[in-house]
């Protein structure tokens, strides 16, 4: 990749959400915002190799996108109507008490609350936010959902149309509405973080720091809004404890490094300390923890061990038992089974994993987990078949490299 291509990639990671959010606020139309932003980046791909990378790529992209949006409005001969719609979405009703802009004045956060409006189905909120805020492609979002690309694309298109038709406002919700609205936002941010933590696209970096950093930044902003909300603190702690291990998760050769093989000296001590502090603060309240708080506590156990052999697996399993009561999903059950293998052995864990076959047949981590358990039980041929299926389903390049090596070691 030459310098110009590298600059365009960096600009896309840093500026996509900013440009979309700016145009959404100005024109009050997500279709115009998204398409004009995409056109601006396409223009950059065409012109920057000849004209050179501008001194301020973000400003160049924003100016170009604004012009593209205005050109489209003029072509449609509906400029007055568009401007009226923009004012309806842009203007805050002075009679509605909202969180003061001095507390949180961030266009991307406004965009997130718009994308996560309760009028939209949860999967639609996530898909729309990943597209408009995260800048992910439809194929990447489809992989995150284990869904078809055309279904995901249609979901995003319908969501934008519904926001437009219902005149869903582009703003941070009123203070009294925040608790009900924040759960949907946290779910979206968690999936954005996960896409960065282990990117699903085969043509992207295996770990996308731009997405994890953005998810953490926006979660910090929501915590500033709701400092007493346990699940906001829990999600932030979970993200920090996971992000702390980022530099140790991919080898120099581009292969995923699993938790048991990571250099724990390379973990970010400051992020771990902050994450542990948040977990302790929530425990001290005596309030029953939610899903994100329990996941953060599990990660706190892992990051407290100086060596994988020092991990308190009984505590990890106990926390998963608590989590299963709140979230009886198949993926949580799979993760619990992996921890059970360290306590009760791979045979017991394999039986638990096999019970999930019908629900997780299309999930690569299910087959990767089976492959490892079968390997530990000495069932080489079955393990190889499971590795083959995991490799076939995986999209992350680092993960594919790891799974391929483990499969080939069976020879």
Automatic annotation (TrEMBL):
Keywords, comma-separated and alphabetical: Sigma factor, Transcription, Transcription regulation
Pfam families: DUF6596, Sigma70_r2, Sigma70_r4_2
Stretches assigned to the DUF6596 domain: 181-281
Domain RNA polymerase sigma-70 region: 18-78
Any one GO MF annotation of this record: DNA binding
Entry superkingdom: Bacteria
Family: Belongs to the sigma-70 factor family. ECF subfamily.
Residues that span the membrane, as ranges: none
BP GO terms, sorted: DNA-templated transcription initiation
Domain RNA polymerase sigma factor 70 region 4 type: 112-163
Keyword Glycoprotein part of the UniProt annotation: no
Protein name, as recorded: RNA polymerase, sigma subunit, ECF family
Keyword Transcription: yes
């Amino acid at each position: 990749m030459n310098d110009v291509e590298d600059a365009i990639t960096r600009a896309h990671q840093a500026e996509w959400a900013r440009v979309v959010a700016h145009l959404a606020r100005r024109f009050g139309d997500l279709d115009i915002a998204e398409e004009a932003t995409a056109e601006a980046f396409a223009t950059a791909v065409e012109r920057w190799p000849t004209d050179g990378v501008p001194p301020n790529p973000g400003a160049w992209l924003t100016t170009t996108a604004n012009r593209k949006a205005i050109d489209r409005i003029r072509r449609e001969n509906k400029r007055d109507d568009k401007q009226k719609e923009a004012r309806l979405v842009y203007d805050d009703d002075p009679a509605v008490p909202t969180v003061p802009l001095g507390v949180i004045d961030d266009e991307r956060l406004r965009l997130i609350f718009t994308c996560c409006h309760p009028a939209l189905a949860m999967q639609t909120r996530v898909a729309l936010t990943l597209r408009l805020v995260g800048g992910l492609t439809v194929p990447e979002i489809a992989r995150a959902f284990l869904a078809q690309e055309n279904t995901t694309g249609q979901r995003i298109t319908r969501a934008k149309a519904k926001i437009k038709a219902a005149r869903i406002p582009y703003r941070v919700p009123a203070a009294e509405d925040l608790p009900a609205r924040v759960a949907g936002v946290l779910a979206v941010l968690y999936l954005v973080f996960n896409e960065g933590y282990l990117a699903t696209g085969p043509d992207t970096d295996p770990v996308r720091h731009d997405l994890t950093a953005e998810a953490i930044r926006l979660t910090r902003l929501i915590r500033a809004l709701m400092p007493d909300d346990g699940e906001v603190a829990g999600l932030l702690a979970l993200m920090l404890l996971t992000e702390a291990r980022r530099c140790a998760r991919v080898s120099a050769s581009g292969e995923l490094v699993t938790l048991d093989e990571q250099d724990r000296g390379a973990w970010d001590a400051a992020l771990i300390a902050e994450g542990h502090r948040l977990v302790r603060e929530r425990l001290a309240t005596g309030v029953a923890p939610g899903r994100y708080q329990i996941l953060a506590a599990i990660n706190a156990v892992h990051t407290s061990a100086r060596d994988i052999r020092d991990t308190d697996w009984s505590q990890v399993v106990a926390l998963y038992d608590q989590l299963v009561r709140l979230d009886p999903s198949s993926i949580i059950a799979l993760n619990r089974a992996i921890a059970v293998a360290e306590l009760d052995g791979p045979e017991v864990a394999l039986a638990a994993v096999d019970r999930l076959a019908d629900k997780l047949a299309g999930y690569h981590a299910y087959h990767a987990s089976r492959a490892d358990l079968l390997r530990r039980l000495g069932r080489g041929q079955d393990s190889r078949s499971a590795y083959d299926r995991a490799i076939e389903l995986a999209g992350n390049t680092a993960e594919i490299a790891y799974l391929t090596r483990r499969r080939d070691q069976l020879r």
